[in-house]
Design a protein that fits this description.
alpha+beta; five-stranded antiparallel beta sheet; 1 helix; 5 strands; about 30% strand
Amino acid sequence: MSGKSGEGEHEVPPPVPEIGALMLDSARDLVGEFRGVWAGRWSLRPVKGGVEWEVDPKDVRPLNAEQRMRAEVGKANARSRGEVL
C-alpha cells in the first residue's frame, strides 16, 4: 500500500455540455465549441471554424464572462469577414 487516500482514482466526469457551448481546453489554452463525445473524449472545434480536436473532459472548463465575450466577438468579426459561415 502506498498510504495515499486514493483521491482522483474514481473521478466523476464533468457534465456533458450542450452542442455549440464555448469551452476552454485548459491543456492547450484554446477556446472551442463543444461538438460531442467519442470514446470518452470530447471534441472541440475552433470558434472561427477549422479542424476539430479531441480533449480529455478533465481538461475542459466553461468560459468566464470575459473569455466568452472575446470568443463571441472574435467569431462575429470572422463571420463579417466571410471566414465563418
